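Can anyone check this?
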Amino acid sequence: MSEWQDRLVELETRCSFQETTLDELNRVVAEQDRRIEALNAEVQALKGYVQTLLPLLNSTDADEAPPPHY
């Protein structure tokens, strides 16, 4: 092969490798995005759960009505 053919083959090989690498990186980024979205949804659900529990945890005996037998 001539020098320019060797260079062309080398460039095509590099381009193919880069395309493969970009496809793999794209797949990884997309998967991470899905995981981040799922984790955000889970955090929001937990925040809501904690918000409903906080009043119960902060209440004192004085806040509660006396039992009916008093």
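Reply from J.R.: I decoded it. The chain has one domain: 3-56.
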